[in-house]
């Protein structure tokens, strides 16, 4: 049994996709945990905010979830040809708060998914670059859902198989 952390980097369709991954994981006997990054309301990272913020328990909780999981799936829409600010923000906070930031991502399997009106390919490319840079083993085939490529359970199943192997 694998434990998979599913990051939802927006509300709406990407959060629904994250829940679909969780349900599919659980049907296969794995543990899936959805983390809605938008609901955390983590302040925007700046060096000044880092100096002033005294309660970092939310960031510490996210780091704990990442360390405890066997793999991650990230569901994020395309924002102006890149990733949503909420995803980049939590990664920035973790990078400055962890004693060993690389341990959070190094050699961790990461599957990528996007529901996007803009296509989703640029979001996936940006996430692939970022998570690869962090040392993650990014799964080659993402799940991309858009107006010309509808939801397919078979795509969800294939990504799950690759993430839990």
What does this structure look like?
The protein has 165 residues and is of the alpha/beta class. The chain has a single domain (3-164), classed as Flavodoxin domain (Rossmann fold). Helices cover 48% and strands 18% of the residues. It is built from eight helices and six strands, in the order βαβαααβααβαββα. The protein has helices at 13-27, 37-40, 47-52, 57-68, 85-97, 101-105, 121-133, 153-164, and strands at residues 3-8, 31-36, 71-75, 109-115, 137-138, 143-145. Strands 1, 2, 3, 4, 5 and 6 form a six-stranded parallel beta sheet that branches. α1 links the parallel β1 (3-8) and β2. α4 (57-68) crosses α5 (85-97). The radius of gyration is 15 Å and the shape is globular. The chain starts with a strand and ends with a helix. The mean pLDDT is 95.
Low-confidence blocks of residues: none
Helix % is 40-55%
Q: What's the architecture, going by CATH?
A: 3-Layer(aba) Sandwich
Strand residue content: 15-25%
Supply the number of structural domains.
1
The end-to-end span amounts to 10 Å
Helical element count?
Answer: 8
Write the H/E string, N to C: EHEHHHEHHEHEEH
**What composes the largest sheet?**
6 strands, parallel
Mean pLDDT: 95
> So, the CATH homologous superfamily?
Flavodoxin domain
Overview in brief:
This protein is α/β, with parallel strands linked by helices and 165 residues long. It has helices spanning 13-27, 37-40, 47-52, 57-68, 85-97, 101-105, 121-133, 153-164; strands at residues 3-8, 31-36, 71-75, 109-115, 137-138, 143-145.
